[in-house]
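Thread: "does anyone have the structure for this chain?"

Original post by V.I.:
We have the sequence but no experimental structure in hand. Need at least a predicted one for the grant figures.
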Amino acid sequence: MTEFLRRTLAHTLTADQDLHLDNPETTDLHRAIIQSKPFLKRIYEEWYTLLAQWLPGGCGLVVELGSGAGFSSEFLPGLLTSEVCFFRSVHIVFDGQVMPFRDASLRGITMVNVLHHVPDVRLLFAEASRCLKPGGRVVAIEPWVSTWSRWVYTNLHHEPFDAKREEWAFPKGGRLSAANGALPWIVFERDRRRWEAEFPDLRVKMIRGIMPFRYLISGGIATRNLMPSFSFPVLRKVERLLDPFIRSLAMFALIVIERR
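Reply from O.Q.:
Generated one for you, tokens below.
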């Protein structure tokens, strides 16, 4: 049944293309889809606004990991965009597990739906601890585990999702196909004390569950719009009314990590 729904609701641009998820051309296609779907684009605009709000002020470079199909530089002037392979839309190519920056040189590191694709998050946070200035922050939007999202990500989403996995790592694979959507929750909720012990120079400043259903309604990148774009502000208000229940409903989380 779920496979039938995926095929029926598939976005025309993705349904008509025979591209592997990890093919760089797929990222160009995803960029076009985001720009063509006003509802989805407004979600990204909201996410980028949150990133900008939670980055610290002052001097120092801000780097985005996994810039891919996004447009965050429109909201973060001077942002250095990056990817693990070449795209015309990014400034620099490197792996977040080995960052090419001096010690204590970064004011911020941002990412949207990237952390759960990192094969070894320990390496990434070791690099973040090294590269961030005191007071610098990692600000991320990532999938989150709740009663509701566990069902959605298990049954309706194409990415691997394993909230019971003991390891914080997974085998290296494709840039987008290798993943564990539950990884951010595993590290920062289930295994929070272990993470704090391993990275004493970093502290969790805030984790806020967000967006119970608007991303799902937008259809995301792979699926058609499920609601017209003019419904966006009304549905945002409905989500705000659900804030008291967000722990059970959140599909994503805003994660803010600060260098001591």
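V.I.: this helps a lot. Residues 23 and 102 are 31 Å apart (CA to CA).
O.Q.: and The first helix runs from residue 2 to 9.
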